[in-house]
Design goal:
By secondary structure, the protein is of the alpha/beta class. It is built from three helices and seven strands; from the N terminus they run αββαββββαβ. Strands 1-2-5-4-3 form a five-stranded mixed β-sheet, with helices on one face. It has a two-stranded parallel sheet with strand order 6-7.
Length: 171
């Protein structure tokens, strides 16, 4: 799918989006497109299912990158359409906002099993509940890491004194 077809797909489903385009190259300038789509968490699963159904090739999932936005967390789900196609890849980032007082996002593992690691990372690093995820064990943090401390948050639950836990780890 080219960028115009992707925009038409999003518009057909009443999704608002923003496209950023960068040009690289001197002899043969090429454009790279990134599409940013704000999605309600209640609709996230359906939007990803729609991308799978309507894209020419299966969307390539990269990672979830969270961001602390004060009273909420924003989860950026990064996908690539046309993955591996020279000069044809289009990055689609689905932005999902969740208030910290009701911090959850849906699992996508039934659609894309490879999202499990990023979803588990989101649980332990931001304190979100990933609804529907079966395996919620820690992935990166040690078993003795303090409960209720989330390293990627900037509020009172963020990591402050936890670096002391690892002072001697290189010895």
């Amino acid at each position: 799918m080219n960028i115009d077809e992707i925009k038409a797909m999003l518009e057909a489903h009443d999704l608002e989006y923003e496209v950023t385009t960068t040009t690289a190259g001197v002899r043969t300038p090429m454009e790279r497109h990134t599409v940013w789509v704000d999605v309600d968490r209640e609709e996230m699963h359906d939007v990803v299912a729609m991308m799978i159904d309507e894209a020419e090739e299966f969307p390539h999932f990269s990672v979830i990158s969270p961001s602390d936005a004060g009273d909420s967390m924003v989860y950026n789900y990064h996908f690539t359409l046309n993955y591996g196609e020279f000069c044809g890849e289009v990055v689609i980032t689905l932005r999902v906002s969740a208030p910290k007082n009701d911090l959850w996002v849906p699992t996508l593992t039934d659609l894309i099993p490879g999202t499990e690691f990023s979803e588990r990372e989101v649980i332990e690093m931001t304190g979100a509940d990933v609804r529907g995820l079966k395996d919620k064990r820690h992935l990166f943090l040690t078993p003795d890491f303090p409960e209720g401390v989330y390293p990627w948050r900037r509020d009172e639950t963020g990591a402050k004194e936890t670096n002391k836990l690892y002072e001697g780890w290189k010895e």
